[in-house]
């Protein structure tokens, strides 16, 4: 069955790769075409290296059975690190959020990756993310604090609300990331929501 690229008169291998690139988020038909023709002109070693990297990604990367972050070993290197505070869990939406928090070097606990957020309008509900796995983890492990680090938007707030409601009866301390003004920012350019959060989250010096 021919795809849209083949209908443009492209030969099958070229059209097929364009179609696959076009399936990726943020890549439209024009970008897909540029990528394919770049690879056609590139040295064979570069194209083969890309193919090998993609195959290695799918063959070797998995999800940690404890925190559901990406890993090549199970448990992941963060869960298995004795220097990490295993009693403090930071809950994030995606693996990329783990990388962002790790770059700060400010969190020494472990993580739990939801792989999504509660967004009923998009068909994402509690059972579609790693929600119940977190609740089970808090029930079975010695957990002192769960830090909810979901995104500060409507879906992230809804997810945080439902998580808090499920975790609070278990007797665990549930916290939320503080929100406020960015370092180096000016008050006059702050939106009302951000400035309001900064005022509510003020602390004594």
Characterization of this structure:
It contains 7 helices and 6 strands, in the order H-H-H-E-E-E-H-E-H-E-H-E-H. The model has no long low-confidence stretch (mean pLDDT 91). The longest helix is centred in the first third of the chain and has 17 residues, at 44-60. The protein is α/β, with parallel strands linked by helices. The protein has helices at residues 12-22, 29-41, 44-60, 95-102, 131-140, 154-167, 192-200, and strands spanning 62-63, 70-71, 85-92, 109-113, 145-148, 173-176. The relative contact order is 0.08. A hairpin with a 6-residue loop joins strand 1 and strand 2 (70-71). The strands form 2 sheets. The chain has a 4-stranded parallel beta sheet with strand order 4-3-5-6. The chain has a two-stranded antiparallel sheet with strand order 1-2. It is 40% helix and 12% strand. It is globular and about 65 Å long.
């Amino acid at each position: 069955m021919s795809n849209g690229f083949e209908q443009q008169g492209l030969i099958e291998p070229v059209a097929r790769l364009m179609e696959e690139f076009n399936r990726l988020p943020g890549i439209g038909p024009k970008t897909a075409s540029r990528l394919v023709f770049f690879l056609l002109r590139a040295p064979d070693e570069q194209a083969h290296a890309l193919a090998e990297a993609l195959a290695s990604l799918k063959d070797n990367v998995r999800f940690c059975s404890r925190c559901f972050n990406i890993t090549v070993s199970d448990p992941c290197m963060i869960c298995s690190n004795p220097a990490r505070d295993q009693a403090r869990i930071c809950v994030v939406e995606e693996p990329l959020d783990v990388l962002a928090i790790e770059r700060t070097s400010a969190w020494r606990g472990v993580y739990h990756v939801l792989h999504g957020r509660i967004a009923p309008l998009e068909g994402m509900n509690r059972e579609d993310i790693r929600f119940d796995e977190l609740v089970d983890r808090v029930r079975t492990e010695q957990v002192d604090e769960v830090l909810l680090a979901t995104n500060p938007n409507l879906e992230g707030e809804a997810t945080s609300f439902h998580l808090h409601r499920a975790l609070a009866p278990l007797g665990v301390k549930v916290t939320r990331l503080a929100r406020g003004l960015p370092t180096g920012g000016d008050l006059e350019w702050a939106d009302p929501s951000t400035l309001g959060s900064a005022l509510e989250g003020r602390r004594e010096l």
